[in-house]
Amino acid sequence: MARRVRWIKAYVMHARTPEGLIDYVAFFERVARLPQQALRVEIHNELVIAVNKIEVEGNLIKLRFASGNPEELPLLYDERTGDLETASTPDGTWLAAATRVVLVPSERLIIIESKRVGVSATSLERYFTKLARQNRIVNRLNFDISPLPSSSFEDELERYARIREAIIQVNRPNSDWDDANDILSELAAESGGQKASVSVSAARGDSLEKNEGIVNIIRDHVRRGYANIRDVRIFGRRIGDVADSMLTLEKHQEQRAIEIETRIAQDLEEEIVMAAEVELAERAILLVRERSQAPEGDR
Asked: If DSSP codes are grouped into helix, strand and coil, which group holds residue 281?
């Protein structure tokens, strides 16, 4: 039977209000107690996200999200004739995609199933922000979700003999910019910014310093327990290569791949995905705790 690969990825949550930090455990306990109808949020006029299932197991919260456009009618393709027909759905129902998510509020971690169609880290940022406001949990919430870098990022960085350009974009950390002690964060703090980015290029034929400047800032951010990196890209040439390549955070995020049969039953697929997400959550917990114990760690 045919199989497909599904990726699940680990992220760090950074949430705050104008008054200060939120209590993640208390916040998500309130979310878990909301009635089904209150968990529906319109992100924009073509996307609605709702929670179809929510389970609390110890320090974990397991969610199944449904997302889609309630106003869009599905199209059916006829393989025999090549015709497209507009289908209808029963009143009060709409075509949705399911996405499984595991939260670890006490550790500020969120594990998201990565799908072409479904909720993403970006849409969940907007979802939790709007959910908090419409249910009067928190009125002015800033909610950022940042990729959790894997240890392989720094290992891969060491393979580069020459770096011709480095780019980093960061969100405001959990409490404030002074959580990160670097010039980029200092500039963002002095500017009153929410996000900051910088790009540095070497002169033609030269290389950026690997242990100073922007590359060192990137290395320090990757090593932080609760990283607030939005994106990282490094262009250069690895030892032994004959062509330049690009190192990205997307490829070196804490994640894992699972294989799922194409036409597997929904409940069995969910069991497989959730088990993998719990396993990744446990691995991520150990990673952030280990990094946070280091002198540059942030919690």
From this structure: helix
Helix, strand or coil for residue 107?
helix
At CB < 8 A and 24+ separation, what contacts does 120-126 make? 121/9, 121/11, 121/145, 121/147, 123/43, 123/47, 123/49, 123/67, 124/49, 126/43
pLDDT digits (tens, 9 = 90+) for 94-147: 999 999 999 999 999 999 999 888 999 999 999 999 999 999 998 889 899 999
203, two tokens: 């002169």
User: Cα torsion at 226, 232, 235, 241 (round to 10°)?
Assistant: 50
Q: Where are the alpha helices (DSSP H) in the chain?
A: 24-33, 121-134, 151-157, 183-191, 213-223, 266-292
Asked if 14 contacts 172 with a C-beta cutoff of 8 angstroms, the reply is yes
Residue 251 has phi, psi (to 5 degrees) of: -80, -20
